[in-house]
Design goal:
It is built from one helix and two strands, in the order βαβ. The protein has one helix spanning about 20-35; strands at about 5-10, 45-55. It has a two-stranded antiparallel sheet with strand order 1-2.
Length: about 60
């Protein structure tokens, strides 16, 4: 049987952003990210998740 295995990595970093509001801080962070001024890499790794799908099945992380 052939399975499609989805591999999802989560990366996370905290940045200090000077702004007048949360919305402005997020907008500034997003702009810096879009301009590739903030680039996440292996040092920002948090976790990895594996899910397998067989024909007609939904994604599952069961190891059956």
């Amino acid at each position: 049987m052939i399975y499609e295995v989805y591999i999802t990595e989560t990366l996370c970093r905290t940045e200090q952003i000077e702004a007048d509001s949360k919305a402005e801080a997020i907008a500034k962070a997003r702009e810096a990210y879009d301009k590739e001024e903030i680039v996440l890499d292996y040092k920002d790794f948090i976790e990895v998740d594996f899910k397998a799908v067989a024909d007609g099945d939904e994604a599952s992380d069961d190891e059956d």
